[in-house]
Amino acid sequence: MASVAAWLPIVRAGAVGWAPVSPNPMPPVPVQNRRPSDEKIMINVSGRCFETWRHTIDKYPDTLLGSDEKEYFYDEENNEYFFDRDPDIFRQILNFYRTGKMHYPKFECIAAFDEELAFFGIMPEIIGDCCYEDYRDRKRDTSERMIDDRLSEDGETDQSYSLREKVWRAFENPHSSTTAALVLYYVTGFFIAVSVIANIVETVPSAALPGTVTILPYGERYELSFFCLDTACVMIFTVEYTLRLYAAPNRCKFMRSVMSIIDLVAILPYYIGLFVKDENSDLSGAFVTLRVFRVFRIFKFSRHSQGLRILGYTLKSCASELGFLLFSLSMAIIIFATIMYYLEKNVAGTKFYSIPAAFWYTIVTMTTLGYGDLVPTTIMGKIIGGLCSLSGVLVIALPVPVIVSNFSRIYQQNQRADKRKAQKKARLAKIQIAKNASGTAFVAKKKAAERLMQSGGSMEEFAAKMSGFEQQHHHLLRCLEKTTNREFVEMEYTYNGVPCSRTPETTTHHPQSPPLTPSPSTSSSHNSRTTGCCGRKRRSNSSTRYHSAPTSATPTSPNTPQDYNDIQIRVPNRTSRADLNARGYPKVNSSIPTSTVTTAIVTMPTPTPTPTTDVESNQSGCTNSSGGSPNVVRISAL
Amino acid sequence: MGQALKKARQKRKLVGNSDAPQVGTDHELDDLEMQVVRYKPDGLDELVRNTKFSKKELQLMYRGFKQECPTGIVDEDTFKDIYAQFFPQGDASQYAHYVFNTFDTDHNGTISFEEFVLGLSVLSRGTLNEKLNWAFNLYDVNRDGLITREEMFLIIQAIYEMMGRYSEPTFEGVSPKEHAEKIFQKMDLNRDGVITMEEFMDSCKMDENITKSISMFDTTL
Question: How many Å lie between the alpha carbon of A101 and the closest alpha carbon of chain B?
Answer without folding.
Answer: 12
